Amino acid sequence: MGWSFLIFVIFIVCTMIELFFQWFFLSRLIFYKPKSKTSKQEPVSVVICARNEYSNLKKNIPKILEQKYHDYEVVLVDDRSTDGTRRLLKEYKKKYSHLNVIQLNNNVNFFKGKKFPLSIGIKSAKHDNLLFTDADCQPLSPYWIHNMQKNFSKENEIILGYGGYKKEKGFLNSLIRYNTLTVAMNYFSYALAGLPYMGVGRNLAYKKKLFYKAAGFISHYKLESGDDDLFVNQMANNKNTAIEISRDSFTYSEPEKSFKNWFFQKKRHFSTGRHYKNKHKFLLGLFGISNFAFYVTLIIILLLTDFWLWGIILLSVRTIGLIINYYYSAKKFDENILFLYSPIYDLIFSILNPVIYVSGFLYKKNKWK
User: Fold this and answer.
1) DSSP state of 25
2) Long-range pairs for 332-341 at CB < 8 Å and ≥24 separation?
3) Would strands 204-207 and 158-160 be described as parallel, antiparallel, or unpaired?
4) What tens digit of pLDDT does each residue of 85-126 get?
5) pLDDT attached to residue 171
6) Which of 104, 181, 237, 325 has the fewest other C-beta atoms within 10 Å?
7) How confident is the model at residue 367 (pLDDT cuts 50, 70, 90)?
8) Taking a C-beta distance cutoff of 8 angstroms, is the pair 88, 57 a contact?
9) Domains located in the chain, CATH noted
10) Rounded to whole angstroms, how far apart are CA atoms 231 and 202?
11) pTM higher than 0.90 for the full model?
């Protein structure tokens, strides 16, 4: 067996793996049609942690405090802010009786990250239905709480929502939004396949009793991040997890303005993936490796072998599937134009993701605030 034929075999295997993930997992989101829900409107506690988020809170918190929902509270944990946050929250407290502000004045958090203040917020919440977002997030609609909580039921204890980033000009913004879309496509599709593995703290809901059942974040307390995806990875299963993708349920955040900051944000997210359940690590790792190997072997085949025509044919088949999945998924998340960039960005991330992942082993200083 010549080396060129071996490369071609590897290329075919990678292509088959890619097509399998496209049509077994990602296509589930294309064909997903939410069932009409008539659940009771139960009380909800919205939990937010903030440190030195004065400008974001001033802009975003009114959108949360003025939701069209009959019974809810907002539990806001101020973790030792020094930028005027305390004064701002005092003003809001006078105006909004359903705002519960918790001030953390001393650094009693023996571990880095926001898991300690978030735990304080959860334990202080009055209601069992908890809804989470970040200080730099803004609900797209005044019906955000309604649309997220309607999925709770006797069986559904975890609700995965979509947390996007605001559209701005520039390549970096487009890159961030494409990556966010890709991550959402993955965790929603896996959940629909009965393999929920993560959610995003920008828009996530779960039962308070589930938090106590998990003993809080104790299993991964020493990790700076993972209050959202690691908790979901630990507690979600094919029976207790639902998704919500109506437009009125979306939240949007301010995207990073520099590639360096976004790079470190991505690295922090990758660092938690190493602590996922083995079956999730296997599937996600298999997809990442096959994605990288697909392009490496494709380049070799096109430049150095006689199988170049097959390379073009299989690349075309894979690209068509990629565009179809991104076209229909992007429409669901109001990111219509991004599907046009999917072949280019897929190539970029096939290189960028391994670089970010490996860098996490070389430089591990990642902080929440």
Assistant:
1) I
2) 332/29, 332/245, 333/162, 333/164, 333/181, 333/184, 333/245, 333/250, 334/164, 334/247, 334/250, 335/164, 335/177, 335/178, 335/181, 338/174, 338/177, 338/178, 338/181, 341/174, 341/178
3) antiparallel
4) 999 999 999 999 999 999 998 776 666 678 899 999 999 999
5) 96
6) 237
7) low
8) yes
9) 3-30+279-362 (no CATH), 44-273 (3.90.550.10)
10) 14
11) yes
CA distance 57 to 54: 5
Backbone phi and psi for residue 366, each to the nearest 5 degrees, phi listed first: -130, 125
Percent of the chain with pLDDT over 90: 83
Q: Which residues of 254-263 are buried (b: 16+ CB within 10 A; e: fewer)?
A: bbbeeeeebe
In whole angstroms, how far apart are CA 32 and each of 155, 238, 243?
19, 16, 10
How far apart CA 100 and CA 74 sit, in angstroms, is 6
What's phi and psi for 64, nearest 5 deg? -90, -35
d(CA 25, CA 48): 32
